[in-house]
Amino acid sequence: MNWDIVIGIETHVQLKTNTKQFSGAPVEFGKEPNSQACLVSMAYPGVLPVLNKESVNSAIRFGLSIEAEIASRSIFARKNYFYPDLPKGYQISQFELPIVGKGKLSIDIGDDLKEVRILRAHLEEDAGKSSHGVIEGKSGIDLNRAGTPLLEIVTEPDMSSAEEAVTYAKKLHNLVQWIGICDGNMQEGSFRCDVNVSVKKKDTDVLGTRREIKNLNSFRFIKQAIDYEVNWQIERLEDGGEIEQATILFDPESGETRSMRSKEEANDYRYFPDPDLLPLIISDEDIKKIKKLMPELPEEMKLRFEKDLGLSAYDAEGITSSLDVTQYFLSLIDLGVNPKLSANWILGNLFSKLKEKDIGIENSPIPPKKLSSLISRIQDKTISNNAAKQIFEILWEDSDKEVDLIIDELGLKQISDSNKIDEIVDEVMKTNSAMVEEFKSGKDKAFNALIGQVMKASKGKANPSQVASILKEKLSK
Ligand code: ADP
Ligand code: MG
To answer: Ligand 1: which of 4, 115, 154 to mutate, judged by most atoms within 8 Å of the beta carbon?
Structure first.
């Protein structure tokens, strides 16, 4: 590979406010077309925009969460273009002076932490939607979405693989939900990414020409689109061709990208300050007030879990990867379960099952309380990990069942009585004297083979760590 991949992402985050960016119309999704559109959404002549204070607070919360500078004065501008779902003929956005300046978001790449620089985040409003064919042979315009508050978050071109891009997108997706500014619903379009991709030869610092993949609303599509696009660009360059700056679309059906418009066809938006809106002034006092209300951030919580609970960096990252996972984890440890065991069970058995069935942890068929009673039986050594897995499967089907009853019914209780284990070990050493000799002559492997025999003799029920220590002691005699 002679090529470096360069990626920068612009994310449209729909803010979780009750009303629109510049009017009191509601922002509920999935309502009867045009039932959530007031005169401002429909751009009647003479109406005036009034800025939504809650969306400003959301932008400030975001700025604080990425350690960015919050502009004490920012400006709304008109971005002019024609489209049937934009009756005003312009979108209100921020251009030269955005509310949130430079910040940063760290992402975990393998064992390393990589910093993605955020260039800016600005407030704007969404457009309406054209629906083709809802009325036979015609297109309809639905202005329910028109004027919905958006925060557009723009990174520097700091990511260098599809994996990094997806990790960044997931991290940002978690963060905006965590700080309560976005519902994170990607299917409904509440979080969508425009991904800018270019490639360059390894031996140069000069960036290649980017192509911008519009409106990706799933992590899988982000990965697929980047992989396809990178290959396409490299092939083209290696064939002696050139890359033209363009806006492109990803087609999930074919897995390919195709051009929407080239740079030549790009709009000249003729931005200018919106004369209907005053500059947005934010005082230090305003920022301080909001800062006080900020929750502990996922990154901070992650470090705390490593430090105070002894979780590995990997586990702490997994546990704080979403608010719902964190809450599940916290309920477990509130019930007195060992944090490391809890993290293992959540990120291991529970996650793989939830993923297999495509269920979110907030809807887990096994609630924290039930999992806690299972894990506490491992903790007090009543059952082995393997037995617990068996019980987990049963609880998954019917979480009303009592863990202790299942243990009794299936006879899964571990043998932890050392006299009993003593007896079994003696028996096994007698019948496997060759293995014992092997071990004594220096073959360490024979030790595990002997443990295997003891486990077999106990029908898998002997407590493995007790077996190991008793066996060790007897062999050293
Ligand atoms: P536009 O609105 O024209 O898309 P922006 O400045 O808003 O321009 O966004 C540009 C995005 O493209 C940023 O995320 C930036 O990091 C990214 N970008 C800029 N240059 C490159 C490049 N050569 N390769 C990949 N991404 C790039
Ligand atoms: Mg762009």
So the answer is: 154
